[in-house]
């Protein structure tokens, strides 16, 4: 059956239209019919048709004009158009192809030839589909960290810039969490890099399981460092999440090649204030501030969360403005 590629028949002659419907339905196609080009365009407003089999000579909008209009429109996938007409001169064929038709079949048509040309159209549409899937896979690979499965640093910069622009436009805040695994170098030194990689993957999965799906975004910044963007989240909400993540990691038993390994992690939390100057609103400035609090968490003895206490935004952090919890 060819239900994946429904066909729109555009034919003003009722006898020819019914004949095409019978032939195509018998061949296993799902068919919709229109009496002219305008009706076909109206149907496209409601549903997408990957294959159009259209007559040339029709009232209101003829086959050539239908081809031209469809080619100007942006659709989710390619529309393969077969022009069906009694016109068979070289000039007519060229005119039809230049209007946007992919193929040309003269009346009276041979049923076997019609079916063969439709099979050709399906092969081309399937090729286009496979190319789209391949391109999508390449696009995904370009923004995904291959080891942990979360987004990579390149995509992080883009997302962070967009979140900053949105926050400034709508005067709303958001927060970021910068975190890493405590003494990760020692894990690599003691157990080897293969187990270190396994720990990184489990750590990322643990974080992803406890943040809001399709809202919060986790990125691998580099090495064992990760960054989380928390849209529509103030410093209190971000701190609360960071503390839950810290406790979860602390209590979790990580498995690597049959070995049970306990790890801890540290978190630096900061909030974006939409009132900041443009100089202070860069992704680099925000990451630098979060990294400062992550460093403070390390100074506090690791397995802790450091953050700027709620209050007026300060361009420089003061020791008394930093809170931590171990």
Structure description:
The chain is an alpha/beta fold and 326 residues long. It has two domains: 7-141, Rossmann fold; 153-325, 2-Layer Sandwich (Alpha-Beta Plaits), CATH 3.30.70. Helix content is 46%, strand content 20%. The chain is built from ten helices and 13 strands. The protein has helices spanning 14-26, 37-44, 63-72, 90-99, 111-143, 153-170, 184-191, 193-208, 235-251, 283-299; strands at residues 7-10, 31-34, 51-55, 80-85, 103-106, 174-181, 217-222, 225-230, 254-256, 259-261, 265-272, 305-308, 322-325. The strands form three sheets. A six-stranded mixed sheet has the order 7-8-6-11-12-13, with helices on both faces. Strand 9 and strand 10 (259-261) form a beta hairpin.
